[in-house]
Amino acid sequence: MRRVFGSVRARAALGATVVVAVALVAAGLAVLQVLRADLVDQARLKARTDAREVASRIAAGTGYRALELDEDVPVQVVDEDGRVRAVSEDLEAVTGTGSASVTPVGPGSGPGPDGGGDADDDGDGDDGDDDAGQVSSEEEYGHGSARIDGETGDYVWAAVEVTDRRGTEVTVYAGAPLATERDAVSTARDAMLIGLPLLLLVVAAVTWLVTRRALRPVEGIRREMAAITASTDLSRRVPEPGTHDEVARLARTTNETLAALEASVARQRAFVADASHELRSPVASLRTQLEVGAAHPELLDVDGAVEDVVRLQRLAADLLLLARLDAGERPHSGSPVALDALVREELAQRTGDRVPVRTEVAPVAVRGSRGQLSRVLGNLVDNAQRHARGGVRVAVREEGRWAVLQVADDGEGVPEGERERIFERFVRLDDARSRDDGGAGLGLAIARDVVVRHGGTLTVSAAPEGGALFEMRLPSG
């Protein structure tokens, strides 16, 4: 059971069924209420019409025994003293009216010209008074029952007051049966009770099928991802449906993630291979020198061994920094770093450089890691001095909300087609040079990674001096 309702299809079908059931029950109750109210209003209208018809006849002077109230409409006429003056034929019992009696009072039982009864109890409808009676413009309603010719039923009663031609006030009660209302409501309720389960079954089945069809591509994505995980083949991709819905976007995003993961793994493998290759040369050279020195101490090249150790130290530091950057390390945005002061301090340490460096700096500050930004500047200046013929220029200025650092040389420059490639790791365009002069090809890659993690950009273009112009842009702060 838990497995069945653990699927999205089952939960969707169950949720849709519950929602539809609640909506249908609420709508059904509302419909029954409206139907009942409408039918009751119709019964009230009929009762009011019948009551006013009898009241009009009384007001016109028709005697109570001459009203000729048939059995189709239960009618009772009651005076102010609660005496029944007239009832319809075959009316055997009533409730909800002005009196429980269904027996009219006889002649002489009330005040009349002869000392009892009504002046017009003879039924001729003429009491010698030419003034017409008056029917009230309002009516009241109530519920009760009536037994007519042995059959009892529920009725809605309309009560209309009327003054006859003699000035006597009576109330006419006319009833309309509620059997039609109850039969109609009962029929509608039974139809709903039968139709609601069938409709819910249809809703559940349709929702199940639609959800199953909609989730079919998701199942395909899941199966392919499981196969990729089992095979560790990141070149595979999940199927992308031809629709433009959320599932298609999920498939495209999954493939983009797989592509990024594949590229990351490829870079990692290349990084490990290149790092192993770069480490092999200085380690082998150092081992050779140490072995020769152990056998022939007089032949030990101490300076060369120190240089190899320094190369290993620098390469290890570069590799550790790249590893931290790949792990997502971001600089702490603490105190502002004065970029102009950083340039002066870095260049002041380069007293013995082969190529002189001139500066054009203006006060500007950025936020970030002073150590990492100093590393970027050092890498850019090292790269520029390595390629320059006669000089290097370092400029610092502020452009709007950006702090700009430029390092230019007068060397051969970087071909336009290689300007992005030089920022890749272990890439060197001057492979003909010795490794000792050219480095490991990590300086520019480290510089760009650091700048990007500071929220800036690092690009290369042609310098006015004819060489390469490296431009770093960071948000000023």
Describe the structure.
With 477 residues, this protein is an alpha+beta fold. It has three domains: 226 residues, no CATH class; 68 residues, no CATH class; 144 residues, Heat Shock Protein 90. Helices cover 48% and strands 19% of the residues. It contains nine helices and 13 strands. It has a six-stranded antiparallel beta sheet. Strands 8-10-11-13-12 form a five-stranded mixed beta sheet. It has a two-stranded antiparallel ribbon with strand order 7-9. A hairpin with a 5-residue loop joins β12 and β13.
Strand content: 15-25%
The dominant shape is rod-shaped
What class, by secondary structure content? alpha+beta
Question: What is the chain-wise order of helices and strands?
Answer: HHEEEEEEHHHEHEEHEEHHEE
Helical segment tally? 9
Largest sheet: 6 strands, antiparallel
Tally the beta strands. Answer: 13
Strand order, largest beta sheet: 2-1-6-5-4-3
Unreliable stretches (pLDDT < 50, length at least 5) are 108-125, 431-438
> Which range best describes the helical content: under 10%, 10-25%, 25-40%, 40-55%, 55-70% or over 70%?
40-55%
Whole-angstrom Rg? 52 Å
Separation of termini?
61 Å
Roughly what is the average pLDDT, rounded to an integer? 83
How many domain units?
A: 3
Short précis:
The protein is an alpha+beta fold. The chain is built from nine helices and 13 strands.
List keywords for this structure.
five-stranded mixed β-sheet, 48% helix, 9 helices, rod-shaped, 477 residues, alpha+beta, six-stranded antiparallel β-sheet, Heat Shock Protein 90
